[in-house]
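Researcher: Let's try something more involved. This one mixes different molecule types, so please make sure each is placed in the same coordinate frame as the others.
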Amino acid sequence: MAKVNVGKKILSANEAHALKNSELLTQHRNRCFNMISSPGSGKTTLLVRTICDLAGAVKIGVIEGDIQTDIDARRIRATNAPAIQIITEGACHLSAAQVHQALQKLPLDNLEIVFIENVGNLVCPSSFELGEDGKIVVLSVAEGDDKPAKYPAIFAKSKVLLVNKIDLLAVGGLIDFDLERVKADARRLNKGIAIFPISARTGEGMAAWYDWLKGQLAKA
Amino acid sequence: MAKVNVGKKILSANEAHALKNSELLTQHRNRCFNMISSPGSGKTTLLVRTICDLAGAVKIGVIEGDIQTDIDARRIRATNAPAIQIITEGACHLSAAQVHQALQKLPLDNLEIVFIENVGNLVCPSSFELGEDGKIVVLSVAEGDDKPAKYPAIFAKSKVLLVNKIDLLAVGGLIDFDLERVKADARRLNKGIAIFPISARTGEGMAAWYDWLKGQLAKA
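Model: All components are placed in one shared frame. Result:
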């Protein structure tokens, strides 16, 4: 009896949709970044601050992936940026087909950057290409400095690592987090990864992240 | 052509192994809890403290699930408790078959409680029964108070919610976290869930969690 490699078939169908997304984004001269992290690393807060701080300078749209609720899309829309919510109803990652439908609802002609905020999950989303120009992994210092070692795939595949909530480190003795260990472990997996320590809450370190983003625009 | 429901077949094979695990644990009069959370919520720190504080009173063994590295098993073994590491090599959850192999390596006759520390992932592990007596979900306050609403499945299925890192709330203005919202949202999903706010780091609130655990023993 012939064996069917189901895993491979699913990935290939996803890759075909990812290619269509990439073509659509290129047609509209949009850059697209797929943000991946554990639940609660601060992705939405980071996006809200980025959109507000770059208002008038960079036109940003957002696709929000969540298992349930449109809490995140409502937070983005409060900034006046367009946001499309995908509710996965239990699924642990966004698929390229879901993103394709969402892209068609965004005003791509009026945008320069589309952020995809993936489902909060440091594991599964790293295996599914969405047609993005790059993945951005967000790690909160509260999660601990062993995460690149323990969850290597997403750190190996990302263009940028945003180490968020660094304001928590300012209170002495509250959190044990060795930033140099995180940098070394991430660079061992991914020599070219750009690493920005930030606090989306206080704004610390965000300027370097904005410079990186604007540099991406120039290449579009 | 006949359709094959692959998803259903995988779950059933897992359930068959889960049943074998449950039988094995019952034979040895062990209680077993499956700990599930996002990466970095503090599961290992919580287990280390629980094992040390209950030394001489409750005999505990641990099965550690990780994608890569045996960092966590080594932390557990430093307490002198037996720990078996399962490395999933990329897989986002533990399967009952993996746990069955690990259970056979633990000295079950000398144990009363087996903790399974699942892969750090708030989504996928909730769908795979391992033969446990109950699931325990751990939420760090740094992850935010919207998690039961956004990731309902694991909160609906757990016997216990441990709200960890509450020492971070003592520093005013650092973290916005409404414990009452978390309690209300979790109880809306799961009327009977036991909720313990704790700090595995400072020990605050741990006594109530230990009382709950000891109460489970009495029922074994």
